[in-house]
């Protein structure tokens, strides 16, 4: 019987799947693990099921001494909180949960796009504050969504899911930036540069992985290139967008609004953003449906079961 650590409370089915054959400890804390907890976990468990915020950085592996864990089965497709190179150098494999959260996250991108363009948050806040005095023809006029131009930064699984919804559901023209060529079964134009894409579209949606390569990819230059009616949506990782430059662009009216699910220093969200009516702010809800979170946990669990049985992991990074 091997020892497994799940670093946050999970849907029951996930714990049940692992506890059939192994000894499972579930950390009863909603916050990410501390440095000491990370180091201790590497020494005490055969496999760990970590998630966002559990910062398995190079320094943790270096400080860990004798490492018992052979696998970090990350709960989530994004794994920028894990230094994969250091993990491998210390004999620790890493897996993630691609695919099972694509639809939920694409749905949430549309939630942000629609809510921001149609001023849904502003309307809700007005109504709840008891300030609604009835319908009139010029109240809270937003931007039309159907038929507009969409730009996707990072045409991967989720980027494609968003583009598909926008093309088939909203009759939008789709353009995108991606380093490699994509084969798509609907019309979409690949653009060479980020600024050309930004200048061309009404809604710019960010769906690249986080990490050093994409840090502040969306910055001042992109905001100046965007139309003043443009809306930015970010469902990727907070540090892909230069948050200070975004605030400056919104304050200067360089862009019309933003829909954000992720932030540079979660859970801190700058006061400046919280004070703006033209931004929609969600607390990192991309994959937050019971079905999706269960599927993510079961895929992470399957990776652990395969690894502990000496088989190749299902979704290595
Ligand atoms: P994916 O299939 O790997 O897609 C990422 C896409 O980005 C790929 O097409 C990749 O293609 C492209 N890309 C990477 N670097 C790029 C760059 N510098 N410039 C342009 N394109 C670039 O991953 P996914 O499953 O769609 O997930 C994407 C990210 O969404 C995850 O890594 C995660 O951080 C985030 N996410 C957030 C939530 C949430 O709760 N908000 C939920 C799920 C996922 P090339 O490498 O060919 O360029």
Automatic annotation (TrEMBL):
<dbReference type="InterPro" id="IPR006139">
    <property type="entry name" value="D-isomer_2_OHA_DH_cat_dom"/>
</dbReference>
<dbReference type="InterPro" id="IPR050223">
    <property type="entry name" value="D-isomer_2-hydroxyacid_DH"/>
</dbReference>
<feature type="domain" description="D-isomer specific 2-hydroxyacid dehydrogenase catalytic">
    <location>
        <begin position="4"/>
        <end position="317"/>
    </location>
</feature>
<protein>
    <submittedName>
        <fullName>D-glycerate dehydrogenase</fullName>
    </submittedName>
</protein>
<comment type="similarity">
    <text>Belongs to the D-isomer specific 2-hydroxyacid dehydrogenase family.</text>
</comment>
<dbReference type="Pfam" id="PF02826">
    <property type="entry name" value="2-Hacid_dh_C"/>
</dbReference>
<dbReference type="InterPro" id="IPR029753">
    <property type="entry name" value="D-isomer_DH_CS"/>
</dbReference>
<dbReference type="InterPro" id="IPR006140">
    <property type="entry name" value="D-isomer_DH_NAD-bd"/>
</dbReference>
<dbReference type="Pfam" id="PF00389">
    <property type="entry name" value="2-Hacid_dh"/>
</dbReference>
<feature type="domain" description="D-isomer specific 2-hydroxyacid dehydrogenase NAD-binding">
    <location>
        <begin position="110"/>
        <end position="286"/>
    </location>
</feature>
<dbReference type="InterPro" id="IPR036291">
    <property type="entry name" value="NAD(P)-bd_dom_sf"/>
</dbReference>
<keyword id="KW-0560">Oxidoreductase</keyword>
């Amino acid at each position: 019987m091997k020892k497994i650590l799940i670093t946050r409370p999970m849907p029951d089915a996930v714990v049940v799947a692992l506890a059939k054959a192994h000894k499972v400890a579930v950390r009863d804390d909603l916050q990410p693990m501390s440095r000491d907890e990370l180091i201790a976990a590497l020494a005490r468990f055969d496999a760990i099921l970590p998630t966002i915020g559990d910062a398995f950085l190079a320094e943790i592996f270096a400080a860990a001494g004798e490492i018992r864990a052979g696998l970090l089965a990350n709960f989530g497709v994004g794994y920028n909180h894990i230094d994969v190179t250091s993990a491998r150098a210390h004999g620790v494999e890493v897996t993630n949960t691609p695919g099972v959260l694509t639809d939920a996250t694409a749905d949430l991108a549309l939630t942000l796009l629609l809510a921001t363009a149609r001023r849904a948050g502003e309307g809700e806040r007005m109504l709840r504050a008891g300030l609604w005095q009835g319908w009139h023809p010029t109240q809270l006029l937003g931007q039309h969504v159907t038929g507009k131009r969409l730009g996707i930064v990072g045409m991967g699984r989720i980027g494609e899911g968003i583009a598909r919804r926008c093309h088939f559901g909203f009759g939008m023209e789709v353009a995108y930036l991606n380093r490699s060529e994509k084969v798509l079964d609907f019309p979409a134009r690949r653009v060479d540069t980020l600024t050309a894409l930004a200048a061309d579209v009404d809604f710019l949606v960010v769906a690249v992985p986080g990490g050093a390569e994409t840090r502040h990819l969306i910055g001042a230059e992109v905001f100046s290139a965007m139309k003043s009616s443009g809306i930015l949506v970010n469902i990727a990782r907070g540090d892909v967008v230069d948050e200070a430059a975004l605030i400056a662009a919104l304050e200067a009216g360089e862009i019309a609004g933003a829909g954000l699910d992720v932030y540079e220093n979660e859970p801190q969200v700058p006061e400046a953003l919280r004070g703006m009516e033209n931004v929609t702010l969600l607390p990192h809800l991309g994959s937050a449906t019971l079905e999706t979170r269960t599927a993510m946990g079961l895929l992470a669990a399957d990776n652990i079961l395969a690894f502990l049985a000496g088989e190749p992991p299902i979704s290595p990074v």
